[in-house]
Amino acid sequence: MSAAAASxxxxxxxRTPVDWGVAVSTxxxxxxxxxxxxxxxxxxxxxxxxxxxxxxxAHVRELTGLGHDLPxxxxxxxxxxxWVAAAAEGLAALxxxxxxxxxxxxxxxxLAGSAGVQAGMVLAYxxxxxxxxxxxFGGGRAAGGGRxxxxxxxxxxxxxxxxxxxxxxxxxxxxxxxxxxxxFTAVPWLRDYFAGEVTRFLAGLDETANGAFTxxxxxxxxxxxxxxxxTTASNGPIxxxxxxxxxxxxxxxDRLIALSTLLEGHADHVMDAVGPAVVPSVATIxxxxxxxxxxGGMLDRVLRTVLGVDAKVKQYAVGAAFTRHVVDxxxxxxxNAVWTSPDTLPLRAEMADPAAWxxxxxxxxx
Length: 366
Description:
The protein contains 16 helices and three strands. By secondary structure, the chain is mainly alpha-helical. The radius of gyration is 21 Å and the shape is globular.
């Protein structure tokens, strides 16, 4: 673990529902090594990934109209273990203060340690799959934070598996992550709004857990009536979580789901909309990457479902469809009204009905 990550984890570990030190040590023990890459090739990949982020973000700014006055910064290229440490650092900062002071002693400490082991296993699994990430909370919350991470071994492994041009694929990945960076750096209120919603959600977990027992018979009856149609938003881990929530908790959850779907879908739309002038093989990459998202062996698919990764994949599709519809209806400038304030963010129901968002925000222009 880096010194910065260790400091962040140590300083926040007593006030979060997860012992992030345990999470990091667990994840780094179980995360698999990356592909074997000749030293010269690895050095070239790292150098190119650092340099291409600035170029990619310039393209994103031109398309979206966001962040023209911000500096163009390189990305941080890491290996799998480095991503684990960085992800834990950001999560520790995000969840700081989620528990009352002193609750890590006794039962609270046992629970935080257990949660740390579970979080570590999730980080180990994702550490072999995440291509990149913009973490608005990495680098220290007090200083404003924010780190764009590119996981070199995973990018190389995915590019080889897809059999697509390396330069194109690296640019394509950077376009996605630079879009996320602009979402948070060009929209000043978004970072604190997101952190506040997460804090509210975590603060209600005790109520959710206590109320789950009283709602358990109802949940069982509902589950029995469910069909096996996994295209509905109420199936899988997310659906079960919603059934156990109180109405107040569900309101916060809905806002977080809507925001996450917007952010991911917007980034997916942008990385393709920049077009073949920047990424000549973009159509081939998208087709093969989408098939890869759906793929995997039986064990991998089970893990993806348990961890909610399949639900995340659906968020990309729903969010991209929302973005595409709104841009077609009112243009990119009209779409950018989503960033005006929390009140103009789409509601969860509007993500599946973008025309409703256009009517609410722009009147009858759709």
